[in-house]
Amino acid sequence: MSGAALGIEIVVVFFLALFLLHRYGDFRKQQRMVLFGTLLAWYLCFLIVFILPLDVSTTIYNQCKKDHEEHASVPTASSNHTAANTSVTPTKRVSTPCYKPWSYIPDGIMPVFWRVVYWTSQCLTWLLLPFMQSYARSGGFSITGKIKTALIENAIYYGTYLLIFGSLLIYVAVHPQWHLSWYELQTIGITAANTWGLFLLVLLLGYGLVEIPRSYWNASRHGHLLIKTYFKASKLMTEKADAEENLEDVMEEVRKVSESIKYNHPLRKYIDTILRKCPVDYQEKMGRNMDDYEDFDDKQNTYPSEKSLVKLHKQVIYAVQRHNRTRVQWQILLQQAIHLEDVAKNETSSAHQFVHSFPSSEPAGWFSRYVYTPTAEWYWECFLKCWFYRLLSVVLTLFSVAVVWSECTFFSTRPVLSLFAVFIQLAERDYNYLYIEMACFVTIFFLCTCVYSTVFRIRVFNYYYLASHHQTDAYSLQFSGMLFCRLTPPLCLNFLGLIHMDSAISHQQKEQTAYTSIMGSMRVLSFIANGFYIYYPMLIVILCIATYFSLGTRCLNLLGFQQFVGDSEMTSDLIDEGKELIRREKRKRQRIEDGENRRREWKERYGNQREDYTARNRGSHEMKETSYSDTVAASNNRQAKYSRSGSRSERDCIELLQDAEPLDFNAETLTDDPLEAEPGRHAGGRYLSMSSSRSRIFDDV
């Protein structure tokens, strides 16, 4: 293949990252720089996960060729082997030919590839993405202002790195026995980044290895899952109400500022920028309250400063983002609760056909009509799905046990105790490269799932979420890209240690992968290679035990943070509250659906008759409207006599009532009724202020 597999995977992984970004992000609404940074971060991390198995198989082939060369140069070496060698590494490999893997990558390509991928991802996670996060949340009104705000917010962030790096350089300079080259300084930087990543990795992995299998087991228990969904709904509704209240307060502040700064003020362009960030309904409400047809050069008004507007702009961005996040999460949780209630109802159905409470309005596709029929859906949702989840939970539990055992024993090479190392070496004996690559990919994917899903599961990190159907906000996308770039390299390096492909940990004189070679020799910092990298992963056992007994959840519950604890009275109250909230939302949705059905039936029954009636009366109505306009134009004094004052909301309601009058109304009755008139408005539906203001809008010119 000569590198063809590498090229194919590079292209396939790019389209995979693009597809996932399109599924979770919104190409039309979100900023191009946010989308580009997230796409690049995801793409680089996916490349590491997909290409590393190819690097492993190529390294095994190179090791086989090296063993053959050594055997050919020392022909008596095979006779000196004794039974004392207890390693699983096969001895018959030197007598069998080396088979080139189907995905073989020529020498010299992988080191350059890994160097580009690694350093680009590190620049993203440590420099660019944090800066882009601050830039996106900045309240500045210009590019320069946003950049300045982002630099100030990241001053502590970047200053900490410079302080640590400067301290290391001073420490090296004052010790003459240390003569570190640029390569060794680079290795120290990589080691520091990987050490920080491994520190987070073990904490997150210890939670995910237990919680993911348990979550699938609980998913097979529909009653337990429904109760937990009620609990989540109650908590999320509290957060949603708080977000809506915060948004109302911020919008009220925006309204006051918008009314004080009118169209002819220099700061008005900043107000318009803030208004564009507000929700559409608030923009319309504020737009109706704007009367810019008068002279607002009143010197007695106190105007806000540009600095206060920047602060208000940032508050608007945060409030809108938080409101959208809780709204999206509420819709997702509501769909889950309704679906679980439907499953509970259909389990007792004797018809064996799944019935939805709210059927989809979209037409059924080919798959739903011929494959996933209501009968097939009933058997899957009510019978097969729970058993599938239980089987999957058992498989994931065995996988988690293998990971925990290997993390505690991967430093032992004689005998080989790491299960993943045993499996890889057994496949290496038969040159089963496809099995090696699949085993490596599945293991790395499982580790990534345990680590990354933990961040979006823990309640402390509920600020970030990944929601499909283009519902993920920009801040969560950037955070996910930064997290992936920060944790994927140390995770893959830890995996290479599990399969004994990292000589710094296994202490074996074997061929290294190209990925390990760009990480540098850990012997520069021996206390990390021989201490932290070996013994710290053993902490995963304690974390798994604590997660299994839910010690963290119980401690948070005792401290006042509401957690799902089955024997707690507070949990029972929140479950009841969540159940009532879901019932209320279902009634609201049912009323909306019933109203749409009635309107549809009414239109189907009387739509044609009404169209004919409208066509017959259109001509006569136009004649009456023309004569009525002439009458009103000749009686302005009479209209002013019967006009009344009122608020704008009242005038809007009256306008709607006037527009809803039947087509054969009498102009005299409308004009003589004082309740049907308003100041400055024609009874025909046109504002007098609009015509009169045209002569006054240019008074200041």
TrEMBL record:
It is a multi-pass membrane protein. Signal peptide: none annotated. Residues 612-627 have a biased composition (Basic and acidic residues). The chain crosses the membrane at residues 6-22, 34-52, 116-135, 155-174, 186-210, 387-405, 434-455, 532-551. Residues 233-260, 585-612 form a coiled coil. GO terms for cellular component: membrane. Residues 612-647, 671-701 are annotated as: Disordered. InterPro entries: GPCR-associated_LMBR1, LMBR1-like_membr_prot. Keywords: Coiled coil, Membrane, Transmembrane, Transmembrane helix. It is found in: Membrane. The keyword tRNA-binding does not apply. Residues 628-646 have a biased composition (Polar residues). One of its GO terms (biological process) is adrenergic receptor signaling pathway. Belongs to the LIMR family. This is LMBR1 domain-containing protein 2. It comes from Perca flavescens (American yellow perch). The lineage of its organism: Eukaryota, Metazoa, Chordata, Craniata, Vertebrata.
